[in-house]
Specification:
0% strand
Length: 139
């Protein structure tokens, strides 16, 4: 009898562990934003409560990682950059500092929720490209 290796995950969504792991990652991300002084500026742009942002990021990441399209089913195309422009509802001024705080907070959350290192490295690169593209001011 041959021992079969576990098949490789078809998508990052499967690789990360599906909805429960995406939920844990998003929850830890926003918990860190609330707790860590290093993310104070990032936290400040989110208003009094993180509930709406927490839910929308969960829905978005599920689809972005190759899982269920919860976000697009509810709201259509994410139009990330347009939705984050300062003049849009819920938009923000995003510069290098905000980008870097977001990335550091997400990387810490990935580490603390046990995202496999090889996936974490791939996601770091993808998150950087997206976060840098989201910048809408220079500094």
């Amino acid at each position: 009898m041959q021992i079969q290796e576990k098949p490789a995950a078809a998508t990052p969504f499967e690789w990360i562990g599906g909805e429960p792991k995406v939920r844990a990652l998003v929850d830890r991300f926003y918990d860190l934003m609330d707790l860590e002084p290093a993310y104070a500026q990032l936290r400040a742009v989110h208003g009094n409560t993180l509930d709406n942002a927490r839910q929308r990021l969960f829905w978005f990441l599920c689809g972005w990682l190759g899982g269920p399209q919860h976000y697009t089913d509810r709201f259509g195309h994410p139009m990330l950059r347009a939705r984050h422009l300062p003049q849009s509802i819920g938009g923000h001024s995003i510069g290098i500092r905000e980008r870097d705080e977001w990335l550091a907070c997400m990387d810490q959350a990935m580490g603390e929720t046990g995202v496999p290192e090889d996936l974490r490295e791939r996601l770091r690169d993808s998150f950087f490209k997206t976060a840098d593209w989201m910048r809408n001011r220079g500094g």
